[in-house]
Amino acid sequence: MLRFEGVNLHYGSFRALNGITLHAAPGELVVLLGANGAGKTSIFMAASGIQRPSAGSIRFDGRELVGMRPAQIVASGLVHCPEGRKLFPMMSVRKNLTLGAYVHRRDTAGIERSLDEVFGLFPILEKKQDDPAGSLSGGQQQMVAIGRALLGRPKVLLLDEPSLGLAPLVVKQVFEVIQRINRAGTTVLLAEQNAYSALAIAHRAYVIERGCIALEGDRDSLLNNEAVRAAYIGA
Known about the structure:
Order of helices and strands: EEEHEEHEHHHHEHEHEEHH
Number of domains: 2
CATH class of the largest domain: Alpha Beta
Mean pLDDT: 93
CATH architecture of the largest domain: 3-Layer(aba) Sandwich
Structural class: alpha/beta
CATH topology of the largest domain: Rossmann fold
Number of strands: 10
Strand content: 25-35%
CATH superfamily of the largest domain: P-loop containing nucleotide triphosphate hydrolases
Strand order of the largest sheet: 6-7-8-3-9-10
Low-confidence stretches: none
Oligomer: single chain
Shape: globular
Radius of gyration: 17 Å
Helix content: 25-40%
């Protein structure tokens, strides 16, 4: 479904990604683990067309993404939910959600169906749909960010640090929803520092260090890997 082959990415003279090769198969939930600055966000920036790789190939559903515009990539079914939520705080929750459907804006009936699906996942958002997004709690704002991405009708959903700054109970709720989204058929690529919670719902994972893939494996092999436990999980 999504495949990186030998991808390099530079910011000026700084190489953020160095020969990244990874894939997510249809229906998988794949986790990217790594510290801040390891390159997880750069992988998503390259996939979504925000940053252009200096080398390598990124193919989605058999199609080359390098050189495509972000709106074209979203329309093809690859949708990025960014770190930090990036909401419009003065706009209503409903308006923030529907902005995610911009590439489908002529399909008003489809947008309403997608909104109903998001409200089914996050009932509190239906109650607060007319409130300014900036008035919501951090957890509720993260729900809006995920919901907005779902309005883009993703085949593959890129989720960048969705648990960042959230209380443990809210983190648990967010990860349960991510698992439901995946089980409903959406392929998910999830970047997380909360390694234990992420691996608990993952099929496979990659460990990113200094722009390179240091380790990869299925959930159980990484959960039981002593180096991974020491660096990301603890005893």
